[in-house]
Design brief:
A six-stranded mixed β-sheet has the order 2-1-3-12-4-13. The protein has a five-stranded mixed β-sheet with strand order 8-7-9-6-10, sandwiched between helices. Strands 5-11 form a two-stranded antiparallel sheet. Helix 1 packs parallel to helix 3 and helix 2 runs antiparallel to helix 3. By secondary structure, the protein is of the alpha/beta class.
Length: 382
Amino acid sequence: MNYKALRWKKWGKILVLIAISIISLYFVKTYYANHLRIEGEKYARGQNFEKAIESFKRAIYLNPYLSDAYLALARTYIKLNRPSSAVDELLKASRFKPEDEKILNLLKKAYQIELTKSSPTLKIGIRPQVRPLTTIKLAQPLLSYFSRNLNQKISLTIIPEYISTVTFLTEGRGNIAIIEPQELMKIKDRPEIIPLGLISFYKRSIHQRIIILTREKFVQTVKDLKGRKIAFGEKGSLTGYILPRILLLRHGINPDEDLREVYFIKSQEEILTKVMEGKVDAGVLNERVFRYLSSVEQLSEKVHIVAYSIEVPANILVVRKDLSPKLIQRIKDLLIDYTRAFPDKLKFSPFSGDIFWEYTDFGTSEAESNGKKTYTVVFAEF
């Protein structure tokens, strides 16, 4: 008798029974979770909201991926005029269904109700590096967090390119703004504006660097870009044009003479689209933006990075001095707390001491150093 075969047969039966039990348990839990959701909706229709909430929470406990239970629970919280609780539940649901229209629409409604409950309005301005709607999506959780903890309405202004972010503040259009590094020098002699720290809505770092990427197989180094078409960001931007220009010059490519065509494009997503569609041979992107877009769509197999710039600070959060010192400190504390609680959504590092110093030597080519263009970039110590 083959005892080994019998033993394997016995264990095989046991494993099959275990698998069947696990699958059965899963389906039972899924079925019962959905039953509890339906039960909760009946309670909600009968205005028995406490029972409804209890049923929805039990359903979510049994099946944490049951988005309909989160939606039903959020709707119940909204009926009870508890929009902050609704936001919390919808943010949980959005983790595994980030593009679900029902979740996003109800989240928008909950945010709007939440904002109407608080006062006065704190005005925040941002110049987007990606499309405005993407910027709003990235910023909304933080704005909701501010609104709840400051008990103030929050308004977000997407600042167009023809208005300086600093002007947005100095003219009193806003109380808080996120500015780019090259704008920091503009506020050095503006006592009414206080820089609070470096800030980033992207996961990796409060510093940033620029990448040049392409989908062309024959472009492996910066020198291979000679005679080709390149898409830059905005011409006056440190990250959109100045840093990549210097990067090209360091590798012996003069953008004014050695490129076939040069395009200046506002949106990072549009630059990437032009690269993907082959309308340009290479594009300049902020690495943090590229990593974020790669998390939404798999890009690593479609494009490759040719070069990286040096690192510079990311965006800077500044506030108007006429906000109360207590409120300014509270904003800083909330940003630190939010960074600790949600490190995948925000990076914030407060400044300490004197933050202004100038750095002009990028190790650029001799022609650039002697030549015609000198760039002064302000960095920040923290």
